[in-house]
Amino acid sequence: MRAVIAEDSVLLRVGLTKVLEMGGFQVPAEVGDAEGLLAAVAEHRPELALIDVRMPPDFTDEGVRAAMEIRRRWPGTAVVLLSQYVEERYAADLLSANTSGVGYLLKQRVADVADFVAAVRRVADGGTALDPQVVAQLLLRRDNDPLARLTPREREVLGLMAEGRSNAGIAQALVVSESAVAKHINNIFAKLDLPVVDADHRRVLAVLRFLGASRA
Amino acid sequence: MTIPAGLRRTVLRARRDTGFLAAGVPPHLALVPVWAWAATTTARTGNWLLTVPTSAALVLLGTPVLTAVQRARYRVLIGVDVPRLTPTAPEKRTWASTARWLAATRPWRKIGYHLVLGPLLAMLELLVLVLTAAGLAGATVYAWAWALPTGIRQDWFGNLTQRPVYTAAGLLLLCALPWTARAVVRAEAWLALGLLGPSRAQRLQERVDQLAVSRTDLIEAVDAERRRIERDLHDGTQQRLVSLAVNLGLAIATRPDLPDAREVIARAHLEAKEAIAELNDLVRGLHPAVLEDRGLDAALSGLAARTPLPVRLRVDLEERVAPSVESVAYFVISEALTNATKHASAMRAEVIVRRVGGVLRVRVTDDGLGGADAAGGTGLSWLAKRVGSLDGAFHVSSPVGGPTTITAELPCAR
C-alpha cells in the first residue's frame, strides 16, 4: 500500500515516514502544505493520505479542508488527520461527507506505533479511526436524542465502535467478555431503533447515528 | 567664585520667563492694527460697509494662525502644552452637526483672547519688560553714569545720595523680578489653557476616548502575545516532543531484542507521552487555535470533554461575537471548570452560554463544596479583572457546601 504524508514539521515528517514504512506502507511523497498534498495525491493516487490539520499558510484547518477535497475527488484515497488537539467541529466536517475511509487522531497516538499502524490500516481498508477524545467530544454534544437513552457503558461501547474496533477489540479495551459486548451492542441497536438487517450494516448505522451524520 | 545653585536656577528661570513674556508682545498686539484701522477709517468716512467685513475677515483668518503661534510659544519657551482643539468632524454633514462641530472648537473664546485679552496681556508684558530694564539700569548706575552728557549727569546723578538710591531701587526691582515674571507667566498660561485649549469636559472626554482605545489595544496585544506563544510552542517544542515519543515508540517496536534497554526506553516513551499531554493542556489553555478559527461554541467541546467530570454544555449563539469577548468567555469557563475539578470536588458541572441582546451571558454551575471567594483566589480575581477589562459584570455565588455559580456578562454589541 502507498501513503502520502502532509506535515509541515520536517522532524515529524521523518518520524511518520519511518512509522508508515515499518507498517508496510510505501511513501512515494511527503509534503509540507495542503496544495502540495493535493498535487501529490493527484500524481500518485495513494491508498492513504496522512494529513496534519494545521499547515501553512493560515495554520488553522487546512488539513481538514484538503482531506474533504481528497475524499470528494479521489474516493479511493482514505484520509487520516493528525493533530495536536482534536476538535469535534473538524471531525463533524470530515464525517459529514464520509464515514468510511476516514480517521482523526491525536498526534501523540503515533508514538504507540503498533496501535497507530493498525488504526491507519483499518482506515486504508475503508474503516474509521476516531480518537477517544473526539468521541468524548461528540458524545458531549448529543444529549438530547435517542443516544441519551444509552447507559454509560453502552455509550462507551458505541464510542469504541465508532473508533472502528471489532467486538474482540472492544472486549479487550473494556476488559469484559465478547459475549457481554455483543449484548451491549444488541441493546444499542434496540434503543436506536435500527432495522434488523445484517449485523455489519446495523453496526455502520449505529455509528452513523452516533456521529450525527445519519439523516435517515 | 561659584554661584549657589538656587540663585543660578532663579536667574535662569527669570531669564526664561522674561524671554517668554517678550515673545508674547508681537502676537498679542497683532490684531490691534486691524481694529485700529477699522475704527479710524469708519470714524473718518462714516462708511462701515467696507471696514467691518474686512476687519472681521482678517480677525477670522488671523485667529487660527495666532493660536498656532501662541501654542508654539507656550510649548517651546516654557514647556506648557496647550492642547489642540480638534473635535472630530461630523460623519453626516448637516447644518446642525456642522454648527455643533464649529461650536466645539470654541471660536468666540479664541477670538476674544486675540482681540481683547491680547492687547491687555501685551501691556502687562511690556510693564514687566520696562521694570526689568529699569532694574538693570538702576543696579548698574555706577557703571554707565559717567558716560552721560555732563548736564544730565549733574541734574540726575550729581548728588552723592542719588546714585546709591538708584542702585538700591534697581536691585530691589531685580530681586522682585523673578516672582513678578513668574506670576504673570502663570496667569497667562492659565488664561491660554482656558481660552485656547479644550474645556475640562472636552479634555476629560478626549482622555476617556484615549484610555478606551489604549485599553482595547492592550487587551488585543495580550491576546496576540498568547497566540504567538501558542503558535511558537505548537510549531517548536510540541512537534519535537511528539517526534521524540515517535522515535522511542519505533525503538520499542523495532528492537524487541534488547531486554536491558527495553525497560528504560519504555519508561522514556511513557514520560515523553506524559510530557506531551501536560504541555498540550498548558498550551491549549493559552489560546486554543479553534477558538479563533471556529468560535466559542466549537472551542468549548474540547474544553468540556477534557474536564474529568461530566459537563453539560448548552450554547445558544447564532453568530460569533468579537474575538476579545470570545476569548474572555472561554477563559471564564475554563477557569471555572478547573476550579470545580481541582478545588470543589464537584461531581458534575453545567455551562450555559447565551446571547441576550447586546450581552453575552456565561454561567458555570457545579455541585461541589462551594466556598469559592472571588476576592481571595488568584484565579477568580484574575477572571474578574479580565471581565472588567471589557466592561463586563462578574459574579460568584459559592456558599459553603455548594453549589457554586460563576456568572459573567460581557457586552458584545458590535
What is the terminal separation of chain B in angstroms?
70 Å
Helix % of chain A is: 40-55%
| Major β-sheet profile of chain B | 5 strands, mixed
Q: Roughly how many Å apart are the termini of chain A?
A: 34 Å
Radius of gyration of chain B: 38 Å
CATH homology-level superfamily of the largest domain in chain A: Response regulator
Adjacency order of strands in the biggest sheet of chain A: 2-1-3-4-5-6
Strand content of chain B: 5-15%
Unreliable parts of chain B: none
Estimate the helix proportion of chain B, in percent: over 70%
Largest interface (CB < 8 Å): A-B, 34 and 41 residues
Return the average pLDDT of chain A rounded to an integer. Answer: 85
What is the SS-derived class of chain B? Answer: alpha+beta
Describe the global form of chain B. elongated
Sheet with most strands: strand arrangement of chain B: 1-2-3-5-4
Number of strands of chain A: 6
Radius of gyration of chain A: 17 Å
CATH topological fold name of the largest domain in chain A: Rossmann fold
Protein name (chain B): histidine kinase
Organism (chain B): Kitasatospora aureofaciens
GO cellular component, one term (chain B): membrane
Enzyme class (chain B): transferase
Please characterize this protein's 3D structure:
Chain A has 216 residues and is α/β, with parallel strands linked by helices. Chain A has 2 domains: 2-131, Rossmann fold (3-Layer(aba) Sandwich); 142-211, Orthogonal Bundle (Arc Repressor Mutant, subunit A). Helices cover 53% and strands 14% of the residues of chain A. Chain A contains 10 helices and 6 strands. Chain A has helices at residues 10-22, 34-44, 62-73, 88-97, 113-124, 132-140, 152-163, 167-174, 178-191, 199-211, and strands at 2-6, 26-31, 48-52, 78-83, 102-106, 128-130. In chain A, strands 2-1-3-4-5-6 form a 6-stranded parallel sheet, with helices on both faces. In chain A, helix 1 links the parallel strand 1 (2-6) and strand 2 (26-31). Chain A is globular. By secondary structure, chain B is an alpha+beta fold. Chain B has 3 domains: 5-198, no CATH class; 221-286, no CATH class; 295-411, Histidine kinase-like ATPase, C-terminal domain (Heat Shock Protein 90, 2-Layer Sandwich), CATH 3.30.565. In chain B, helix 5 packs antiparallel against helix 8, helix 12 packs parallel to helix 13 and helix 13 packs antiparallel against helix 14. Chains A and B meet through helix 1, helix 4 and helix 6 of A and helix 9, helix 10, helix 11, helix 12 and strand 1 of B.
